[in-house]
């Protein structure tokens, strides 16, 4: 399984159930990377999308404790066990964990690749991703040139779990 996210210098990923910033190249990378794949998210992440609707051209799996939660075009699971059973139906390489913080933390140990858009800025935030730079189990295996969006600098990093 893979993780995909954007994070600031302090590994912050969100505030008030919203992304910290919308960078068009990051949005494009996310769209191109996950289209045709399986995306796993929590209910609040789904509700942060335009109109709270599942992402098009992907299999959307949503984990929520709310047993009455239903949404068209999404697979709803209510526990880690139920999620694990559902994920067995798919090729692990095609599964992308897309947030939020609780879902990332729950599934981090089951993932072997993380695609991180690292933003060279510190935002006010209330949701964070574990710092992979301080985790000896992870290493950067690919990085892009530094990019800019207005006055923001960022780069695309690919982390792999060490064997």
Description:
The chain is an alpha/beta fold and 163 residues long. The strands form 2 sheets. Strands 1, 4, 5, 6, 7, 8, 10, 11 and 12 form a 9-stranded mixed β-sheet that branches. Strands 3-2-9 form a 3-stranded antiparallel β-sheet, with no helix packed on it. 29% of the residues are buried.
The pLDDT mean sits at: 97
CATH superfamily: Dihydrofolate Reductase, subunit A
Please, how many domains?
1
CATH class category:
Alpha Beta
**Binned strand content:** 35-45%
Largest sheet: 9 strands, mixed
End-to-end distance: 15 Å
Helix content, binned percent:
10-25%
Low-confidence stretches: none
CATH topology: Dihydrofolate Reductase, subunit A
Radius of gyration: 15 Å
Q: What's the CATH architecture name? A: 3-Layer(aba) Sandwich
Number of helices: 4
Question: What is the number of strand segments?
Answer: 12
> What is the structural class?
alpha/beta
- Overall geometry comes to globular
Name a few traits of the molecule.
163 residues; alpha/beta; Dihydrofolate Reductase, subunit A; three-stranded antiparallel sheet; 4 helices; 12 strands; 19% helix; globular
């Amino acid at each position: 399984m893979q993780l995909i996210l954007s994070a600031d210098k302090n590994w912050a990923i969100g505030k008030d159930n919203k992304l910290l910033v919308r960078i068009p190249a990051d949005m494009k990378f996310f769209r191109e990377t996950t289209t045709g794949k399986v995306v796993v998210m929590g209910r609040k992440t789904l509700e942060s999308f335009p109109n709270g609707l599942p992402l098009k051209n992907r299999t959307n799996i949503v984990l929520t404790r709310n047993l009455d939660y239903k949404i068209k075009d999404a697979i709803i699971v209510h526990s880690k066990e139920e999620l694990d059973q559902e994920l067995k139906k798919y090729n692990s390489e095609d599964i992308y964990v897309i947030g939020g913080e609780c879902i990332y933390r729950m599934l981090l140990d089951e993932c072997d690749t993380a695609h991180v858009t690292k933003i060279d800025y510190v935002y006010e935030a209330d949701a964070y991703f574990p710092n992979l730079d301080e985790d000896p189990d992870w290493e950067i295996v690919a990085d892009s040139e530094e990019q800019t969006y207005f006055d923001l600098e960022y780069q695309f990093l690919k982390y792999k779990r060490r064997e």
